[in-house]
Every structure is written in C-alpha cells, then in structure tokens.
Amino acid sequence: MKTENAIVIIGGGPAGLAAAVQAYDSGARDILILEREPRLGGILNQCIHNGFGLTRFKESLTGPEYARRFERAVRERNIRAMTDTTVLSLTRDRQVTAVNAAEGAFTVRAGAVILAMGCRERSRGALNVPGTRPAGIYSAGTAQKYVNLKGYLPGKEVVILGSGDIGLIMARRMTLEGAKVRAVCEIMPYSSGLKRNIVQCLDDFGIPLYLNHTITKIEGEKRVTGVVVSEVDGNKRPIPGTEMHFDCDTVLFSVGLIPENELTKSAGIPLCAGTRGAAVYQNRETEAPGIFACGNVLQVHDLVDFVSEEAEIAGRAAAEFVSGGAGERDAADCVNGKNVSYVLPQKIDKNLRGDVKLFFRVTGTFRNCTVLAESGGKILAGRKRRIAVPGEMETLLLPAEKLKEIEGELVVRLEEESWK
Description:
Layout: E1 2-10, H1 14-25, E2 31-34, H2 63-76, E3 80-82, E4 86-90, E5 95-100, E6 104-115, E7 119-121, E8 137-139, H3 140-150, E9 157-161, H4 165-176, E10 180-186, H5 195-202, E11 209-211, E12 213-219, E13 226-231, E14 244-247, E15 250-253, E16 257-259, H6 262-266, E17 291-293, H7 304-324, E18 331-336, E19 340-344, E20 347-349, E21 356-362, E22 366-375, E23 378-388, E24 394-398, E25 410-415
Parallel strand pairs: 1-2, 1-6, 2-3, 6-17, 8-15, 9-10, 9-15, 10-11, 18-25
Antiparallel strand pairs: 4-5, 5-6, 7-16, 12-13, 13-14, 18-20, 19-21, 21-24, 22-23, 22-25
C-alpha cells in the first residue's frame, strides 16, 4: 500500500507530539504520526516522578501529565496517529516504509519528514566491565519501566554505575520502594545529571556519590552477589589499591544516552560526532531537503521543556517547507571552540529569518565565566554565567541582525576569566 501525507513524523514522544501541534498551528493539515509503542507519549509514560514542565508551564507535572497535555492537543486538532507501528526505512527523497498489524507493510510518500525517534541507553556491553553475565543487571531505564509500569522490584541491594538523570531518579525510586542503594559511582570528576536531582535523589536520602570511580568487577554467576569499585586516574584507568567491595544483588547502568539514528543514517544524512544526531540548520532541517530532526534523536536534552521548544522549531519549518518549498541557502558552519564540547545548530543559514538560539555543552565545571559567539574576529553575542557544568545544557541567543555579519564560520567558546 502506498499513501501520501504532507508531513510524516517518526516518533510519538514529547518531540513528535510538540512538532505535530506546531506544524498544524503553522498551517499544515495533512500530518501523520508513526509511533512504535501502543500509546503516544514516549519515555514520559514511565517517568511518574514530578518536575516536568517547570520552564514551559510554570508548574510541576509528572511525565504522563506532561505527555497528556500534548496528546490532548494532537487529538483536538484531529492529527492522525498510528501506534504499534514500526518504521522500517527512510529514503532521502522522503519515502517512509512502516509496518503494523492492521495495514501490514506500507509506504508513505511525504512532503516533509520530522525525525523524532528519541534515544536509547548505553548497555553494559559498551563498557567492557569484567565479570560473567548473571541476573540482576539492568539499564536504569529498564528498571524504571519494571518498577513504574509493571510493578516489579528488580532487586533489594543496589549499586548504580553512572550519574545520569535516570540513574539518579532510580536511586530515589528504588529507595522509596524499600531497596537499599549502596552507592552511585561516576567515572568522571563531575556528575552528568542535573544539580537538583543530585540533591533531591541522593543527598536527601543519604546515598553516597563516588566521583572518579567505576565498577571494575561484577561478581556472581546465576545472580549478582557484589561488585568491586575502584578509583580512576586522569586517564580513567583504575588505580590499584583503591578497590572497594559492595555486596549487592542488582546493578543499574546509567552511563549515557545514544540518539536512535539508524533511520537517519540509512537515508544518507550526515551525523555530528559531538551530538551523534543529524547535522542541522537553525530550523532543524538536515542536509536532506525536507527532512527535519528534533528532540533526543538530535541531541540529548536534560529537560523535556527544551525538547518541546526544539520540536516546535522543526514543526514550524516543516509546515513552511511543504507550503513553499526550499529556499536559497547562504550557509555558514557553526563550530565548538575553547571549553565547548559541541554546538547546535551545526550550520546557520543567513537567509532564514529570526534570532538563533545556540545550544551547547561545556567540557568541565566553570564559574564566573563568559560564553561568546565569534566570527571573523568579531564578537556577535555573549553571555556571562555564574556556573556552567557539562550535565546542564547551555544556550546563547544570536540576534537575527547579526547573521549577516558572520564571516566564514561562527565559533562558540567559553572564557574562564573571572568576574564579579
């Protein structure tokens, strides 16, 4: 079966829902959302803790509450959504092939495509932790699904490797369900989670956080019986003689997220090494005309509020594309400079209207610093920061009138000079 839709959105999580609503409000009417899970909402459906929506709605919502607000907006606009539908392939000329039980395999020819597939967790296999393969080893997100959606407690004595936000939240969640979280270990000298999660999920419950530490051995054959944790040096190598032993029956991994970009790669769309998502212009269009990307498939966000904001950029641009087509490009590269690990967007089209919000992450912890956007030896935008840390995304607004002043490439960097 072949059908045609003006805009096809792959993924019905927070990014896909926000993009659909914005595309509709920008004039598009023929919109189709494809979601592989039984219901819309994505990862938010299992995030029953509060803290969502503080930036966007000025109130604290649970994940399902946040998702339902956008799901209702989709239903109110009669935007079509197909759940239990897996996308099999995407071509550069915007043909989407998918499959579900009702339709079988089918192909949709789209005027524009928005990639909103989200991300996945890194597994133990990516870490090369020594030991056998006993029961009791989970990613933090899998454990969250077991506890919050299925009502199962994965274990009673827990050690968590990695201080990502899901791991921090699961430290609290497991404690509230009666488990004992013995330690959270982080190989870096800083946590990769939000400061508020460190305070609310670890400090408030007396759970120790060991920075510059990692698990060097998992013990047990049929079931985890314990782990060995070692301090690491500046090259992240275990330091002999620093070993600590923890008895436990469960190990949770919270060691980072990877954007789900198999479809992106199969379409021949270039990825950015820093984000592992597609390289995009400020309107979130990839280098394939009419294919846009947003949310955690583009860059891993720390707040869902920012996911929604970015998705609205993609939704608006997709609606403009199907109504007016592609315009002439006057593109400049946007690159990370000193103390910055990556910058998004990676390309800036000087012909597009509007201010450009630059998203980036820093390489370490900096206090009383200044973030600058520079081109051709001229400072085009700047912002002072009391503190900047890798676990929290930073932004810098580049005014629209400055776009024409970009010469060559735009460099975003952080200067450590102190100020008061």
